[in-house]
Every structure is written in structure tokens, then in C-alpha cells.
Amino acid sequence: MNWQYFVDIIDTISPLVTLGFGIYAATNDTKPKDGKFSSRGRTALWGLIISGMITLIVKGGGLYVKIENNKKLAIEREKLVHEKDSTIKAYQLSKQIKLKFTGENKNKKSSGIIFTGNKI
Questions:
Q1: How far apart (Å, rounded) are the C-alpha atoms in residues 19 and 106?
Q2: What DSSP assignment string belongs to 43-95?
Q3: Among 20, 21, 33, 62, whose CB has the most other CB atoms within 10 angstroms?
Q4: Spatial contact of 103 and 113, defined as CB atoms under 8 Å apart
Q5: What is the pLDDT of residues 92-104, one digit of tens each?
């Protein structure tokens, strides 16, 4: 089992657990008249704190993974753009060389030099 599945499960469940502890705290008398938390109140409070921290850690980790993936994608895109530019420049250069040596340029008059590949 991939660790990402585990993180996704915790990411889904932890807000629900936090909500459950919040409902539990709201429906029970967590702070009686003496001003101290009851055992149910302490359970609800610690449940809220721990599940909230787990939620923040999982969400922060997910954000970190997204940022790292975006950095990798940006680097790959930059490489592709550079390769595309290099390919276009190489094609244009080869076209210029071909026009120069074969005299196929129709816009300008040929200089009379035609490269045939034969030895003189």
C-alpha cells in the first residue's frame, strides 16, 4: 500500500474526527459550575486539539508536495521550451545554409555558387 493512500485517508477522516469532537463537546456539559473541565470536557478538548493538529500537518504536507510537483513541472516545461527553441533555431539555420549553398532563395538573386557535392 502506497503511503499516499494512507495520507489521503487521514486527510479525509481527520476533519470528520474534529467535527465529531466538536459535536461531542457541544452536547455534553464540559465545564461544570466549579470552573474546571470535566473528564468529558478534557476528552473533547484534547480530541479537538490532536485531530486539528493532524489535519494541519496533513494539509501542510499536501501543500508541500503540490509545491514540489509544481517546481518539477516548471523545470520540465522550461526544458521543453528550450528544446523547442533550439530545434526551431537549428531548422532555421539549416534552411539558411541550404539556401546559401543551393541558391534556392527566390527573393534574392543567386550569387551563382551552387554546391553540388562534386569534387573539382
A1: 76
A2: HHHHHHHHHHHHHHHHHHHHHHHHHHHHHHHHHHHHHHHHHHHHHHHHHHHHH
A3: 21
A4: yes
A5: 778 777 776 665 5
